Structure formats: structure tokens, C-alpha cells
Amino acid sequence: MSGLVEIHYRRPPDRLQIFRQHLVWDTEQVKVTLAHEMAFEQTMRIEGKVVLEDGSDVVWFTFPGLWHDIGRFHRADGTFTGIYANVIKPVEIDGPVWHTTDLYLDVWLGPDGSLLLLDENEFEEATGKEFIDTPTATRVRQEADAILEAARAGTWPPDVVEEWTRERALEALASEG
Predict the structure, then answer these.
(1) At a CB cut-off of 8 Å and minimum separation 6, what does 122 contact?
(2) Most distant CA pair in the chain: distance in Å?
């Protein structure tokens, strides 16, 4: 269950990032990883508020077969900033090496319950330049709409996201070492 995973995170047309994260929980339904004390070239802001910065922790939830993953975002001081869903191609898991492709659209759920669809301009540009084909673009939009609808209905995020707080992930990591 424990150890590091290497996530090969592609973003069309040609960007590839590799993230190394601690696998802290592993079931067939969900893989929970901790990106601990991340390094960022640029602070991430949503609606003017800092949601990720140098030294931040993110608890990531990967659901095999689903078209999105979920992150619990925190500032460097541990302050919870919100829930972020990345619309992605379903993750391909090959032991400790995972492959995924970001499909531009993201959903943000702030701690105050605010709900936003992010990066629509980037998504439109990517589809216009055919970085994403039409059937995939349709699937991406369906996924984002389904997340938004479930969030409005109070059925998203799934319970595991509330259960696996930053503190719990840090405790799991500490118990491994």
C-alpha cells in the first residue's frame, strides 16, 4: 500500500510533468496520494485567493476508470483552501508508474461552498486547435457538468475526500517511516 508513485501528467499538445507522491491508501475504488510540501514556480490563485503556494500539501484522490481526479488543497501553513477536480483521461496504472492526460477543464469547490468551472478559455482554445478531438471534448464537458450537478445536489465530492484530510494523510505517511 505504501511507497512512492510517479505520475506522468501530460497536457496536450506536448507538456509532460512528472510528480512523485506518497501513496497513503490503496483500494480498487480509490488511490489516495499525498503531494507533500510541493514546490511551485507560481502561486495558484482562484478568485484572487491563494489556494496553493510553495510548501503546500495536496491530498489527491485517483479513481480508476473515472474521468476526473480530486485534490484537497492547502496552503503552506496547512490551511484548507478547497476541493479541486481535474477532468482527465482515466489514469493508466502500471505499478508505481501512473499515466494521465489533463483535459483542461477543472471544477473548484471552495470551503464556503462556492462552486466554479475553471479554465473554459483554455479548453475552448485546446479544442479549437484540435489538441482534443470532438468526441473527447464532448466527454470532458459531460464530466464537468456531472461534477457541477452532483456538487449542487450535495453528493459530490465523495465521502472519502472528507475522510482523508491532510492530517490523516500526514499521519499515514509518518506511520510508514
Answers:
(1) 104
(2) 48
